[in-house]
Amino acid sequence: MPSDPLQLSAVEIVAAVRSGDLTATACTEAFLDRIARTNGTLNAFLCVDREGALARASDVDARRRAGRPLGPLAGLPVGVKDALCTADLPTTCASKMLAGYRPPYDAEVVARLRRADAVIVGKTNMDEFAMGGSNENSAFGPVANPWDTSRAPGGSSGGSAACVAADMAPVAIGSDTGGSIRQPAGLCGITGLKPTYGRVSRRGLVAFASSLDQIGPMARSAADCALTLEAIAGHDPGDSTSLTDAVPDYSRMLDKPLTGLRIGRVPEHFAAGLDPEVARGVEEAFAVFRELGATVHDVRLPHAHHGIPTYYLIAPCEASSNLARYDGAHYGHRAEPGGGHRAEPGKGHRAADGRDADATAAFESPLVEMYCRSRAEGFGPEVKRRIMLGTYALSAGYYDAYYAKALRVRRLIRQDYLDAFESVDLIGGPVSATAAFPLGEKTGDPLAMYLVDMYTVTANLAGVGGISFPCGFTAGGLPIGFQLQAPALAESLLLNATDRFQSLTDWHRRRPPLAV
């Protein structure tokens, strides 16, 4: 076993800590030192808890020496996306609106990590309120891709993906609303799992779109994701959407042969717009699965091409509602008094647009001014864009035309998956149409940015699970991601298939130049 903890998998770290071959303190120090050396380049972490992490690692070591029980993640350093509440660390959602905010409680996933004796080393950068596909929407600066720091790591869990790829943590936690675990995992060359909706508690996850959000693990391998998922999955009475199904022993289900496994291939995913190098890598991945004993069959998802417009109506509508609480009075940043115009009531004149000035003044009170200025100062451009889109779609006269219709299309998309899974066990294909794109390339074109999730949003709309893992590299040395999607609660199948793929390939073991 390598002496350098940075070269160990999560599974190997836990085993080494349990056996005494590695102390949790030495392991944690190695990753903290790595963060100190590289975070200035990548900006993957917004907050690093060196003192707290070393204290928890020391406690794990003391209990091991005393022969006391240890949790299943004992001594494992973990990065946590800054959308999950942490009582001892700031939770900002990478937004000025929550700058410096410290929640009064831990998210359920964070609490489960602590009970499993994981060592939380810090909070990872993200797109503001999880709204973005490149991690350029963070109020605290973009994240750089470790494979090429001029390129985006993907989003919104870009900090979590970059920190794992660059050996700043063996495991990180992300959240996925429309691809925000799978897409950055694909662009950064790691493995990322979006579980079935409800498989992992969302309590303490700052909400973006409540019917779509799901939390999941990001690591180098399926085996590391399986270990982490076992610790964070399961019913939570405090989350009304949490599923009550028992959590399988995912790690023990990784060595099953794939003989007879049926994988669906969606021809539409290989239409114009898919980069030829990505298409080649994906087709070669299908060939690996055939070598493992699986069969590949064309399947149809007839309504998948409606995924992006459907998602970008439902998600902003839910975001508009969820983010309404951030008004400067109840939650979030409060604007300083002054600086805004207030009309004087009772003058009896008409405004330039013909409205009564007294009526206008009612909407220009100091309280309303504070609300407006607080939100204008606290939210970034992309968050404002989505709030306005959602508010418009929910407004009187437009609800049925937009939001209600989007919900009906969502049901059709879900039915497509149910129909497809009658004939295949998994659906495979690309994670994104291209490898990592240059920072700044898509920021001026919101539609182009939205399209980076064209292959991932439908899994969220249908509520099914999905996993992303590397299947090759471009000629320029950038990772190519492959995605598998499965019926509800079939995470064990996703993890087993990915693990078998990774048993024949070494794409997931390759390190970017920054990590060498």
3D architecture notes:
It is a single chain. The chain is α/β, with parallel strands linked by helices and 516 residues long. It has 2 domains: 5-267 and 423-515, Amidase signature (AS) domain (Amidase signature (AS) enzymes), CATH 3.90.1300.10; 335-378, no CATH class. The chain has helices spanning 10-19, 24-42, 50-65, 108-115, 158-165, 182-188, 222-232, 276-291, 307-322, 357-362, 366-378, 381-394, 400-420, 446-450, 457-462, 491-504; strands at 45-48, 77-81, 119-124, 171-176, 191-194, 214-219, 262-265, 295-298, 426-430, 465-473, 479-486. An 11-stranded mixed beta sheet has the order 1-3-2-4-6-5-10-11-9-7-8, with helices on both faces. A hairpin with a 5-residue loop joins strand 10 and strand 11 (479-486). The chain is globular.
Which helices and strands, and how do they pair?
Elements lengths: L9 H10 L4 H19 L2 E4 L1 H16 L11 E5 L26 H8 L3 E6 L33 H8 L5 E6 L5 H7 L2 E4 L19 E6 L2 H11 L29 E4 L10 H16 L3 E4 L8 H16 L34 H6 L3 H13 L2 H14 L5 H21 L5 E5 L15 H5 L6 H6 L2 E9 L5 E8 L4 H14 L12
Parallel strand pairs: 2-3, 2-4, 7-8, 7-9
Antiparallel strand pairs: 1-3, 4-6, 5-6, 5-10, 9-11, 10-11
Helix pairs in contact: 2-3, 7-16, 9-12, 9-13
Distance separating the two termini:
18 Å
- How is the largest sheet built, in terms of strand order? 1-3-2-4-6-5-10-11-9-7-8
**What is Rg?**
23 Å
CATH-defined fold name of the largest domain = Amidase signature (AS) enzymes
Average pLDDT, rounded to a whole number, is 94
Helix content: 25-40%
CATH class of the largest domain: Alpha Beta
Element-by-element helix/strand order: HHEHEHEHEHEEHEHEHHHHHEHHEEH
CATH H level, superfamily name of the largest domain: Amidase signature (AS) domain
Domain count: 2
How many DSSP helices?
Answer: 16
The proportion of residues in beta strands is 5-15%
Choose one word for the global shape.
Answer: globular
CATH architecture of the largest domain: Alpha-Beta Complex
- Poorly predicted residue ranges: 340-363
Largest β sheet strand count, sense and barrel closure = 11 strands, mixed
Structural class assignment: alpha/beta
User: How many strands?
Assistant: 11
